[in-house]
Amino acid sequence: MTSTVEHRFVEVNGVTLHIAEQGQGPLVLLLHGFPECWYSWRHQFAPLAEAGYRVVAPDQRGYARSGQPEDIAAYSMLHLTGDVIGLIHALGETGAVVVGHDWGAPVAWTTATLRPDVVRGVAGLSVPPVPRGLVPPLASMRSLLGEGFYQAYFQEPGVADAELALDLAATFRSILSNSSGDSPHTDPPRPWVIPEGRRLLDTMPAPKELPDWLTEEDIDVFVREYAGHGDRAFTGGLNWYRNIDRNWELLAPFHDRGIGVPALYMAGDRDLVRAFPGMDRATAALRTTAPGLVDSVTLPGCGHWTQQERPEEVNAALLDFLAGLPA
């Protein structure tokens, strides 16, 4: 077993993916969300590797050190799940446990749905599996939360891209702090909604000090990881949002296929995702959408950044889940 996290690049589906890895044994893939990278799993590498697992966390397509295709349509859910399957095979493995947080969770859930022959088990942090609605999801959210809903704000190419890339350190400080369980903005949790004529970061005042789980050194790492794409630092990640309705169309043939592999769901009770319209129904329907559900864990006082805010509890739940999977 390697005692430190090692880094390298892997070619998958025509895109160069940067990966961080540690340990030997059954493969566990850790998929980050927005706006993050492999580093959001910094607290999980050693505990999982020491327990006998090969831990691999990629920068997903469009993020940090990984390649950033120009075409917005190259960030559909079929591309993202294809990257997961391609990466598993590129690593010389035939199967893996896939763990995702934020956007990484839908990728994990969907990969488990489409390829249960490859995914041995799946865990989602923050975002539960959401049943397919009758209308395109952006239209539904716009009708409920207006054009100020952040996912609608992210649709116009170049707008949020320029705002978030203007000052990387300020962006990470504001987004990570204001969406954590330590923020007054998550008591109660509420989705990001931007008043007309304002910007996303206008709704997130710069923190006077960082929460205890986040350091200036952590901010520096996120900044370094994103700096390579210049003024397009966030464009790849934002393009995932620009495929939300396309995903709804592409995944129509699989709308009633449940997640049959063993599954784990974890989220904080102060996570802003819990405040999205319909999310209470999605969590209540977990055993229907994921018949293989082993456990659903709620972390009191935890915000959106689950594995960063509560690493010990997340690691314990993951290790229990992994230990219970069939060999």
Nutshell version of this structure?
It is built from 14 helices and eight strands. The model has no long low-confidence stretch (mean pLDDT 96).
Tell me about this structure:
It is a single chain. By secondary structure, the chain is α/β, with parallel strands linked by helices. 35% of the residues lie in helices and 16% in strands. The chain has helices spanning 45-50, 77-90, 104-114, 137-145, 150-153, 159-165, 168-178, 216-226, 235-241, 244-250, 279-284, 286-289, 306-309, 311-323, and strands spanning 6-12, 15-22, 27-31, 54-58, 96-101, 119-125, 263-268, 293-299. The chain has an eight-stranded mixed β-sheet with strand order 1-2-4-3-5-6-7-8, sandwiched between helices. Strand 5 (96-101), helix 3 and strand 6 (119-125) form a beta-alpha-beta unit. Helix 7 crosses helix 8 (216-226). The longest helix is centred in the first third of the chain and has 14 residues, at 77-90. It is globular, with a radius of gyration of 18 Å. 47% of the residues are buried. The mean pLDDT is 96.
Q: Round the mean pLDDT to the nearest integer and report it.
A: 96
- C-alpha Rg, in Å? 18 Å
Task: Indicate the percent of residues in helices.
Answer: 25-40%
SSE string, helices as H and strands as E: EEEHEHEHEHHHHHHHEHHEHH
> Count the strands?
8
Structural class: alpha/beta
| Largest pleated sheet | 8 strands, mixed
List segments where confidence is low: pLDDT < 50 over at least 5 consecutive residues. none
Identify the overall geometry.
Answer: globular
Whole-Å distance between the termini?
20 Å
Biggest sheet: strands side by side, in what order? 1-2-4-3-5-6-7-8
Query: Strand percentage, roughly?
Result: 15-25%
List the total number of helices: 14
